[in-house]
Specification:
With 318 residues, the protein is mostly helical. The chain has three domains: 47 residues, no CATH class; 98 residues, putative rabgap domain of human tbc1 domain family member 14 like domains (Helicase, Ruva Protein, domain 3); 143 residues, Cyclin A, domain 1. It contains 21 helices and no strands. α3 packs antiparallel against α15 and α9 packs across α10. It starts with 6 loop residues before the first helix and ends with a helix. The relative contact order is 0.10. The N terminus is likely disordered.
């Protein structure tokens, strides 16, 4: 991978530790990637004065997801193919979703217009086996925001995620998402059996309240700046960690849920993300989970054998 930097991007400001690190050659090595992940966990990506977000986040996400730079000429060719070959039905599905993507976030729409989203999702529609599926517009949103200056790279990152990291989320029946919802239920039973039992007593299963959060890797819940920090962590440590993020959001709002006679009013739209608390809580869950269960969490986005193994695990232990 070659991530040549434009000097104008950093003119007038000093590079921070992570930016200096990714500018060196050592991050190509596996131990370099491990160090980058650790730096993200400890230091986080910083926002220099005069910027509204970290200006090199797009590079970090590309590195961590193993996404190579995508030549503009290749992207233009894909656009031409999509214009000629994308079915009217798929294009209609895309446009039905793009206009409402983060519709209440003014900062997002100042940087990303709807045509930007439509073009990228049209290219996904002809390169992805199943075309376009629900939720891809929201999965694209944080990437489009970070890569608003490079449409081809935004396409490349999304394509890498859905092809190599969570391909089972992008199937006609969203099988990876449904497995993820079962995992949320299983993890909650272990981490907080009281809260789990209360939600069960109200007939509230994750399929009802957590579907958008699992489907979109929590990108459906504001604010966007918190989503970006959570996604820094997902890119660094694995997109499967979103399952623990969802459980963490439930724990953070535990008191309000338990005290409510109608908890669905709280769960219908999760309260705003508290990214630092979510990450801290999620990491604290890992030692509490059986290793065999955590393995299933780690593999559920791409391993078709997980649902059967999860069913067996639940039958044996819960």
């Amino acid at each position: 991978m070659n991530f040549a930097r434009n000097d104008e991007v950093i003119k007038g400001r000093k590079k921070d530790n992570i930016e200096q690190f990714i500018g060196s050659s050592q991050f190509f090595l596996e131990n370099g990637l491990s160090q980058l992940r650790y730096m993200i966990l400890i230091e986080g990506l910083t926002i220099p004065e005069g910027y509204d977000q970290c200006p090199y986040r797009c590079y970090v996400w590309s590195i961590l997801s193993r996404t190579s730079t995508f030549p503009t000429k290749n992207y233009v060719q894909l656009l031409t193919e999509s214009e000629n070959n994308l079915s009217t039905e798929i294009l209609s599905k895309i446009k039905n979703d793009t206009f409402r993507t983060l519709m209440n976030d003014q900062k997002f729409h100042q940087k990303v217009n709807e045509e930007f989203l439509i073009r990228i999702l049209s290219c996904i529609g002809i390169t992805n086996k199943v075309g376009y599926v629900q939720g891809l517009n929201v999965l694209l949103a944080p990437i489009a925001y970070c890569c608003h200056k490079s449409e081809p790279q935004a396409f490349a990152i999304l394509h890498t995620i859905i092809t190599y990291h969570i391909p089972l989320y992008i199937t006609p029946n969203l099988e990876g998402v449904h497995t993820g919802l079962s995992l949320v239920d299983t993890v909650l039973k272990i981490i907080d059996p009281v809260l789990s039992d209360y939600l069960d007593s109200k007939f509230l299963k994750p399929e009802i309240y957590a579907f958008p959060s699992v489907l979109t890797l929590s990108a459906c819940t504001p604010p966007l700046k918190s989503v970006l920090k959570l996604w820094d962590f997902l890119f660094a440590y694995g997109f499967h960690m979103n399952i623990l993020f969802v459980v963490a959001q439930l724990i953070i709002n535990r008191s309000a849920i338990l005290e409510s006679e109608q908890p669905m009013k709280i769960l219908r739209n999760f309260p705003n993300l508290e990214e630092n608390e979510i990450i801290k809580l999620s990491l604290s869950f890992i030692p509490e989970l059986p290793k065999s269960l955590y393995e299933l969490i780690a593999r559920h986005g791409f391993d078709k054998s997980v649902p059967k193994k999860l069913k067996a695990y639940i039958a044996e232990t819960l």
